[in-house]
Amino acid sequence: MDDLRDKYLTAIAGAADESALESLRVTAVGKKGEVSLKMRELGKMTPEERQVAGPALNALKDEINSALAAKKSALEDAALDARLRDEWLDVTLPARQRPQGTIHPVSQVTEEVTAILADMGFAVAEGPQVETDWYNFDALNIPGHHPARTEMDTFYMARAEGDNRPPHVLRTHTSPVQIRSMLDQGAPIRIICPGRVYRADYDQTHTPMFHQVEGLAIDKDISMANLKWVLEEFFSAFFGTKVKTRFRASHFPFTEPSAEVDIQCSWEGGTVKVGEGDGWLEVLGSGMVHPKVLEAGGIDPSQWQGFAFGMGIDRMAMLKYGIPDLRAFFDSDLRWLRHYGFSSLAVPTLHGGL
Ligand code: DAH
């Protein structure tokens, strides 16, 4: 028994890992292990012999079991220590650089414009960028022969050979969304439509794709006075300072009367400052929706009337954030984007000061 004891305790002490320990357990105290076999021999002994050998064998079994348990937890501790040694982390190291994008000024200004006009009760409407010529022109009282069609430098889509229907166009303005919204919702109506528009034009102040926001308010008693109030409230909130507007008589096929709207500004030292001085800067077209346009939108012009306006979003961004060249907006130059971009966490709200 002493031999068995020495043999196993030495082996257990020297076990290298848990599987070695497990096979020692099986050969020593497992069902067919050496100690268990010895215990079976107890039956052949005399009662006197058994009284001595029985407790001794049990004590040996207990001793081996507790040596196994102690060694097992020692091995586990050692394994944990090894992991702690190997898998350490230096939490004082500088974090790895993560590329972080910025919000494009056009997106930012679209959000700002939407926040202000939504606060005044305008809902956001959308329409397709590939538009039929009816929505883009005819329904807006721009018939086929009208000079505005050619003035707009329209991009035409291709038709299949032999298909003689008029081609679709890339919408040249957001005004077709007026018609779509009228047909969808009927009157009364109060919507804005921000979005991309396209014209074949390219220089420092023109890009073939740019952004507009359309406004439309139709009800029983809406007048130019409401338009002027809405625009002055809008510009004052947008520029964060009281801004006066000046209405100049103009002409658009889809409004009657029509007005081009200037905002008050100063031109000191070659930079524009909105909301001060006695200069004026043209920023949008507007007017009272033409009866023919209401009709095209399925709205009875003898019962309803309202105003519309269309404004360049990119232009607003240039003015508000002092960005000189329009073309750079769409160059995707990372240096420009980092310089003029906005943090994605700075979500514009009226109460947050836009
Ligand atoms: N659609 C015009 C353009 O792109 C802008 C415009 C002028 C929109 C007058 C309007 C409006 O809604 O009433 O040049």
Sum this structure up briefly.
This protein has 354 residues and is an alpha+beta fold.
Give an account of the 3D structure.
The chain is an alpha+beta fold. The protein folds into two domains: 85 residues; 236 residues, BirA Bifunctional Protein, domain 2. The protein is 41% helix and 19% strand. The protein contains twelve helices and ten strands. α3 runs antiparallel to α4 and α5 crosses α11. The longest helix has 40 residues. The radius of gyration is 41 Å and the shape is elongated. The mean pLDDT is 93.
Overview features:
2 domains, 12 helices, binds 3,4-dihydroxyphenylalanine, eight-stranded mixed beta sheet, 10 strands, alpha+beta, BirA Bifunctional Protein, domain 2, two-stranded antiparallel sheet, about 20% strand, about 350 residues
Write the layout of secondary structure elements.
Elements: H1 2-14, H2 18-29, H3 34-40, H4 47-86, H5 105-119, E1 123-124, E2 130-131, H6 133-136, H7 147-151, E3 169-170, H8 176-185, E4 189-198, E5 209-219, H9 224-239, E6 245-252, E7 255-266, E8 273-274, E9 279-289, H10 291-296, E10 305-312, H11 313-321, H12 334-340
Parallel strand pairs: 1-4
Antiparallel strand pairs: 2-3, 4-5, 5-10, 6-7, 7-8, 7-9, 9-10
Helix pairs in contact: 1-4, 2-4, 3-4, 5-11
This protein binds 3,4-dihydroxyphenylalanine (DAH).
3,4-dihydroxyphenylalanine binds next to strand 9 and strand 10.
